[in-house]
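Subject — a protein and its fold

Tokens — whole-number codes for backbone shape
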Amino acid sequence: MKRIGKPVFFIVFVLILALAYTSVFGIYGENGDFDITYIKGINDIRWGIDIKGGVEAVFAPADGTDATEQEMESVKSILDLRLVSQNITDYEIYPDYTNDRVTVRFPWKSDEKNYDPDTAIQELASTAQLTFRGGTTEDGEEILTGKDVKSASSGYAADNNGTHEYVVNLEFSDEGKQKFADGTSKYLNQQIGIWMDDQLISAPTVNSVISDGKAQISGSFDAESATSLANRINAGALPFGLKVESYGTISPSLGSNALYAMGIASIVALAFIFLFMLIVYRLPGFIAFVALLGQLAISIMAVSGYFTVFPSFTMTIPGIAGLILSIGMGVDANIITAERIKDELWTGKTLDGCISNGTKGSFSAIFDGNVTVIIVAVILILVFGPANIFSAIFGVSTTGLIYAFGYTLLVGVISNFIMGVGASRLMLKSISGYKFLRNRRLYGGKKQK
């Protein structure tokens, strides 16, 4: 076995403890009268409607317009986009095509203090701004806006090779026709970004100068994604704004007291896991528990918005269930490794050889088990995520709940690979280099004579 430097154990150990502490408690400061959040902790998590409650609002055309079904779909799409852009994944949207109404339900912010529904819905009620900009950056030159788009629709057309594919057809107004001709001339063979507020929703490449006011966006579309993009473009070109017809608050089905009880139960469960791993697997068990803390820390980070690349996530009861399931898989992975090392020790091989063979022998089983779960989690995220591919069958509320479960399960399994497989083996190989910790009984072997 290739020896790992002795200090590696302490470096990884301290790093995991630091991650665990900051992920739970965060790091905050003050600048005069202002509070500053440097690193977000558990208190910054946005809890779902089932845990903390939320807001229900009914939107209608501001000028009393008799909206078409297509326009109502566009309203639904833009509200969906606005919620997802804020990383609010636990929400429900119900359009009423007969009465031109859209009902939206979403949870309170993590730092909500006043619980005023009127303030909470202002951002959703504001008019969306669609722009076409040169390039794919926010500061790109504005070519045209949503008012220059006459219509957008999904279609099915043949490409240059004669193969049919799904596309998005665009038609511009007379004024937009000239703007788009100038834009495609300037950005020929470059990308033009389509933005909804400050979110890039598409970035097609200009293949030719388009001067007839009709364009076609092609690519890896299916029927659902082509329709979704067309609806979003139409949403930015709606001829009417939205007004809030009524609003109110939603009571949580679980409540903060139950959440507090779950937190206490989790601490008790972790304590029992620690005792079990320490008694049964001794030193590998202790290291496994440290790695488990690291896995839990990474999972919390991905939910709370600790990392800038991972915005804060809306945590629901199914999301907590996914987190718990991934922790169980992390414990299982370390038990497999510890058992393989114990089996090797009883064959009489050297300690280093037993640790090396045990970790190698357990990897394939751990890898196969985790990869299958990752595949399932990814499918849940894609099918039941913000795209709501199956919402017509299962319902919007169902898709949001299942998405939360898939997300936390995926994050937990990936963090298990990082900590339960990677960090724990580094620590075990490192700590076994200390002479006073090379007693085989510490690793599950028989007493040395």
User: Anything to note?
Assistant: The chain has a mean pLDDT of 84.
